[in-house]
Amino acid sequence: GDKAFAQFLTDEIQEEKKIQKHKSLPKVSGGWELEVHGTEAKLVRKIAGEKITVTFNINNSIPPSAEEDTQEQQKPDEQEPELTSTPNFVVEVIKDDTKQTLVLDCHFPEDEIGHEGEEESDIFTIREVSFQPTGEADWKDTNYTLNTDSLDWALYDHLMDFLADRGVDNTFADELIELSTALEHQEYIKFLEDLKSFVKCQ
């Protein structure tokens, strides 16, 4: 059984490498520095008196697709539909002269992806906003967290503009999806390789 499993994994790894779009991770334009720790990625950018960090984790970042529908219509020689990783991401804005960090929790609404042509709409939304003490690893649940569901739209628009002024806009979000998808695929191949070594090890 293990031999067949290992052989299957070998073929699978070859297939995945064939469809791998990026041999190295794509860059995000606008002077963002990338740090990757396992499945977590952090993009950092410094602008006048501020440091902006965007953190996301690729685990559970591929939305469930409506696979049941596509299976029947798919012709045998067609490529499987491309998987896209759309992770939630957290933007932290740290000003040099304050002890507080503004934290914006953002996500890609599932129904928004793939609606090209609607130029007006943002491809990501802000879900929550809070202040956290700068430099502390653990965020406090006791800090007030603003949920944007019931927010005045004018305030929401200002928050989106505030992010856009710091380079977090639709272009950035598109590039983040691209980066996340490449990272997810890279980690998936690595996982298959680890699994193959594990299965082969007697």
Automatic annotation (TrEMBL):
InterPro entries assigned: MAM33 (IPR003428), MAM33_sf (IPR036561)
Domain of life: Eukaryota
Record membrane topology: Peripheral membrane protein
Entry's Gene Ontology BP terms: apoptotic process; complement activation, classical pathway; cytosolic ribosome assembly; DNA damage response; innate immune response; mRNA processing; negative regulation of mRNA splicing, via spliceosome; regulation of complement activation
GO terms of molecular function: complement component C1q complex binding; kininogen binding; transcription corepressor activity
Region (Disordered): 59-87
Pfam families for this protein: MAM33
Principal location class: membrane
Locations listed in the record: Cell membrane; Cytoplasm; Mitochondrion matrix; Nucleus, Nucleolus
Protein keywords: Acetylation, Adaptive immunity, Apoptosis, Cell membrane, Complement pathway, Cytoplasm, DNA damage, Immunity, Innate immunity, Membrane, Mitochondrion, mRNA processing, mRNA splicing, Nucleus, Phosphoprotein, Secreted, Transcription, Transcription regulation, Transit peptide
Cellular component, GO annotation: cell surface; extracellular region; mitochondrial matrix; nucleolus; plasma membrane
Annotated family: Belongs to the MAM33 family.
Protein name in UniProt: Complement component 1 Q subcomponent-binding protein, mitochondrial
Organism of derivation: Emberiza fucata
